[in-house]
Amino acid sequence: MKLRELLANIPFYKSEGNVEHIEINGIETDSRKVRSGDLFICIPGFTVDGHDFAQEAVRKGAVAVIAEKPLSVEVPVVIVEDTSRVLPFLAVQFFQNPTKNLSLIGVTGTNGKTTITYVLEKIFRAYGQKTGVIGTIQVKVGEDIYPAVNTTPDALELQRLFHHMNREQVDTAIMEVSSHALDLGRVYGCDYDIAIFTNLSQDHLDYHKDMEDYLRAKSLLFSQLGNSYGEGKGKFAILNADDSSFLLLKKSTAQKVITYGCEKEAQFKADDIVLTAAGTEFTLQTPLGSTKIKSKLIGKFNVYNMLAAAAAAVSYGIPLDTVKKALAEMNGVNGRFEVVTTDEPYTVIVDYAHTPDSLENVLKTANEFAKGKTYVVVGCGGDRDRSKRPLMANIAVTHASHALFTSDNPRTEDPMAILNDMVEGLDASHSFEVIADRKEAIEKAIAYAKPDDIIIIAGKGHETYQIIGHKKHHFDDREVARQAIQAKGK
Ligand SMILES: CC(=O)N[C@H]1[C@@H](OP(=O)(O)OP(=O)(O)OC[C@H]2O[C@@H](n3ccc(=O)[nH]c3=O)[C@H](O)[C@@H]2O)O[C@H](CO)[C@@H](O)[C@@H]1O[C@H](C)C(=O)N[C@@H](C)C(=O)N[C@H](CCC(=O)O)C(=O)O
Ligand SMILES: Nc1ncnc2c1ncn2[C@@H]1O[C@H](COP(=O)(O)OP(=O)(O)OP(=O)(O)O)[C@@H](O)[C@H]1O
Ligand SMILES: N[C@H](CCC[C@H](N)C(=O)O)C(=O)O
Ligand SMILES: [Mg+2]
């Protein structure tokens, strides 16, 4: 593609050097990945400044550079005010506006995004479609799996992925949209057909100034949901009527609002909910009639996740019967309320709860079925929201018989400093202990287990690593738990 065609979308740029006849083979923002013929875009990051890598990019074959200031490199430099804002325009144009050829579903909210994307994958596949899924655990294009660095990739990676999905003839792409992504403009240029909101509770206050700022970021998905009416596919905002953010989000979109919930009035509602240790049953009320849902997903929070997915699928035009069948066949999601024990007299569950709200939900769910004691092994991530640490510890001691506080990706922080933040509000009246070594904490919890007890190992779910400093070390809660279960014997 000619660089000049790419630049046609960019207002008031200046160029140093002649860009008229430059042919671009690809776009790159990371000098380490540059190939001959690429256009290199310098992004000032949180850690380093991409401008400092322009020379390296040119050495590797970049034929032009987009920057925010003049640079002494041997290829033309196009100067724009804000390279991060220009990046999505260039990526969308270079990859030929790939989301126009896809049905695109975005899921945002504090908890439940990953779960809903996998429930939707199941339903859309049952409807006969080829799907793509982008999120925390991995990226999936049909049956092909790719690793994920972020829950929502940056604009360039994202458009590249959608382009790949176009080539693979994917019908519907289902993606998690994190608040970071919305705030940083990673999803500018994505033409969403359906936007889903799960819920809002505290997380990421290391990044967002306060809860209002966090919600404002989340609301961008709904204001981005197209402004034109009528042509082709309908556009829908699927909102949780029971969540306190409902009214603000409703005002954020010009599109049709579809509601779901269990308490307040909603178009997709769950009645007669029966929660058991084996799954969930409820009557799904919809504007098209009602049906009985049976699912292996456990806990009331998963009723919300299924309602959100069902509301999206039915609004899209998928028959209720297909939704019902897919929900019945859906197994759990990797690392979400995943039962590790087989026929032991006690139960060990690995779950990804890493926010106060999700931890409370998971412990309350366990307590509903526990005939014995409930133990929780939990930590808080380093270099992340510090204010959630005492809240999570307090929830742990309130809802579990005994808590074992441990490490969860300490990153560049001292594990003991994180643990001290967690337990600062607790005293001897609370039943807890601090064991910084996660393996030791899991082993100890399993050693405690008596028949009918439940052990929740929270925070890491599908993760197969422990991040210490900047390094990832192999660590899998399920592996460690299985070994401890085996060592304990029957
Ligand atoms: C705070 C944040 O969002 N950081 C993201 C950001 O990294 P950064 O700003 O530090 O980048 P940087 O290292 O300073 O690099 C700046 C530029 O220089 C370039 N560079 C750098 C080095 C080099 O040798 N050559 C080079 O060209 C880089 O490619 C980049 O273009 O850009 C990177 C590339 O897109 C992201 O991977 C990275 O996410 C990091 C890993 C991260 O931890 N992000 C978290 C906070 C996050 O985004 N989380 C959300 C939500 C998770 C949830 O659901 O709970 C998510 O969507 O994942
Ligand atoms: N609807 C929900 N409401 C509250 N908690 C939930 C809900 N769904 C799942 N959870 C809890 O939150 C944890 C994370 O769920 P999930 O991975 O689906 O959320 P997520 O929004 O993708 O999280 P992340 O922000 O890390 O990407 C689960 O392991 C469970 O404990
Ligand atoms: N995407 C989230 C996941 C947190 C998972 C937990 N294990 C942690 O490291 O805090 C984050 O990076 O904040
Ligand atoms: Mg997720």
From TrEMBL:
Gene that produces this protein: murE
Organism superkingdom: Bacteria
Main location (coarse class): cytoplasm
Segments crossing the lipid bilayer: none
Protein name according to UniProt: UDP-N-acetylmuramoyl-L-alanyl-D-glutamate--2,6-diaminopimelate ligase
Catalytic activity: UDP-N-acetyl-alpha-D-muramoyl-L-alanyl-D-glutamate + meso-2,6-diaminopimelate + ATP = UDP-N-acetyl-alpha-D-muramoyl-L-alanyl-gamma-D-glutamyl-meso-2,6-diaminopimelate + ADP + phosphate + H(+)
Cofactors, names only: Mg(2+)
Mur ligase central domain sequence ranges: 107-313
EC number in record: 6.3.2.13
Summary of the function given for this chain in its UniProt record: Catalyzes the addition of meso-diaminopimelic acid to the nucleotide precursor UDP-N-acetylmuramoyl-L-alanyl-D-glutamate (UMAG) in the biosynthesis of bacterial cell-wall peptidoglycan.
Molecular function GO terms recorded: ATP binding; magnesium ion binding; UDP-N-acetylmuramoylalanyl-D-glutamate-2,6-diaminopimelate ligase activity
